[in-house]
Structures are given as structure tokens and as C-alpha cells.
Amino acid sequence: DRVDTMPLGSGAMAGVTYPIDRETTADDLGFRRISRNSMDAIADRDFVLDSMFSLTMIQMHLSRLAEEMVVWSSGEFRFVEISDAFATGSSIMPQKKNPDVAELARGKSGRVFGRFSGMLSMMKGLPLTYNSDMQEDKEALFEIVDTVFAVLTVMQGMVTSMRFNRDRLAEAAIGGFSLATDAADLLAKQGVPFREAHEVIGSLVKICIDRGVTFSDLTDADWTALHPVFANEKPPLTAMESINARDIPGGTAARQVRGAIDHARTELSEASAWLATEQTRRDRVMSRDSTGPGGE
To answer: Which residues have a Cβ under 8 Å from the Cβ of 282 and sit 6 or more positions away?
Structure first.
């Protein structure tokens, strides 16, 4: 919508002296509006920078996702297994699978960021109106488009084909006494000042470390001895209990995640419908132009 503006009629700088009908021309070509300032229309490359910025943001988030996959697929984490179609064997370690696609997707970020930064640098010192420096916008924009679309394509294939090690994820989710906050929260919700709850649970963690156990190994007597609140209610002792306790919009509870997925699908559907409508409008204009006067 932002670039659906026709600059024709701006001339080389400040409009033209001929009595042209810009509105009719815009309608004939399928534009929704005309540019309102001829000097700005000639000097402006914001529409290029907007597109490059959006693609750069997409690439940045793809790179972060790729980094997660590189770390999660490592021997130390073993959270996911990347399909052989998107990985290669190590040149020296027969047992190792390299997450090549994720690493290359991450590496492409430098190329994309560099192009965007270069375009900003090129535009920052230009006076009004047109300057030949602006010829540099084409190569930079086209390369970013090609790069990001390629990364999107391979990342989609990698993500949809990888397998998650659920047992390992569940084990790691409660490692390092990550459920300690839930225990402190339970005390706080029962009226215990959080600073006191913090100290109580800190003592609990120390007891578990000294015994070589976790929260789930403690007996009812152990919990009651720690604090009277725990005689009647225990804090979450599994990852799923902890996750589902965060049942607010934006939280991790299964109900909230399902709602977020539904919301994302709705937004995607609406965007797809908008694109389809725009494509139909574009096709109608192209068809009208091809038939000439007396056509559609």
C-alpha cells in the first residue's frame, strides 16, 4: 500500500508544463494515488529503504532462529535433530552432523545487513533532487530480495523436517532448579512477603543440592518442615505444570499458546486474502492494458 503511488508526471524534478491528467493516468495504470510533491518523488528512495528494512528485519529473525538450531542440535544440548537433507557430515569427525543450512542462513545476515547499511550511507548525503548515485539502489535491493527469499525457502524446509527430542527437552526444562521461582510464587500468593519466600526457597535449593536430589524427590514431611504453606499445597514439580501456571495472554500455558497460534493463522489468512485481492486488481489492469481501447 505504501508504494502504490504513481510518480509519473513529476518530470525530471518539478513537474511538467503540459496539461496532463495524472489522476487518469494513475487509474489507467492501476495506481491508487499520485505523488503530491514532484521534487520528493524524484529524490525519494524511502520505498526502497522500507522494503530493505523489512527484509533485513526478517533476515535478522531468521538468523536468530538459525542460531537456536545450531545450538539446539549440538551434542551438548541434543534438543533437535536436523534432517540429513539440511546437514552434512564432518570432514574429520565421522559421528558429527553439521547444521550447514542453519549456519549458512545465519551467515547470510552479513550480506543483507551490509546492503541495507550501504544504501543508507549512499542516501544520507544527497541533496534534492535526483542524483546518479541512486542508480546503486537496484543492485542492493535485488540482492536483498533474492537472499532473504532463498533463506526463507531453505529455513522452512529445515524447520518442518527436523525432529524434537521431547524427553531431553523435558529433562532440561527443569534442570538447574528452574522451578524454584514457582515455589517462591506459591508462597507469595499465600501472603508470604516475596523477600521471605526468596530466602525460604534458596534454603530449599541448598538442601536439595546437599542431598543430591530435586524437588520431586522431597517427601510431604520435607515440604511441611520447610514452610507450613507447603503442607496444603505443593508448587509445580514438572515442566508442564510450571508452563500451564502461566495462563495469561502472552504466557506459555498450552491454552494461551494455542490461542496465539490461532491468532497468527488468522493474521496470515487476512494478509493472504489482501495479497490475492491486490493480485486480482493488478491482473485486471494488465488485462485492460493489453486489450487497448474498447477492452475490459
So the answer is: 30
pTM of the model: 0.83
pLDDT tens-digit readout, 178-193: 999 999 999 999 999 9
Residue labelled with grid coordinates 520431586: 216
Residue 78: count of CB within 10 angstroms of its CB: 15
Question: DSSP label at 83?
Answer: -
Instruction: Decide if 38 contacts 14 (C-beta within 8 A).
Output: yes
Report how far residue 279's alpha carbon sits from residue 226's, in angstroms, rounded to the nearest whole number. 66
90, 81 in Cβ contact below 8 A?
Answer: no
- Rounded CA-CA distance 36/28 in Å is 18
Q: How far apart are CA 50 and CA 116, in angstroms?
A: 10
CA pair distance 38, 158, nearest whole angstrom: 47
User: Closest Cα to residue 82, out of 95, 94, 90, 72?
Assistant: 72
Strand partners, 81: 163
Residues facing 88 on adjacent strands: 98
**Residue 35 near residue 6, CB atoms below 8 Å:** yes
pLDDT tens per residue, range 200-244: 999 999 999 999 999 989 999 999 999 999 999 999 999 999 999
Determine the straight-line distance between the first and last CA of the chain, rounded to whole angstroms.
24
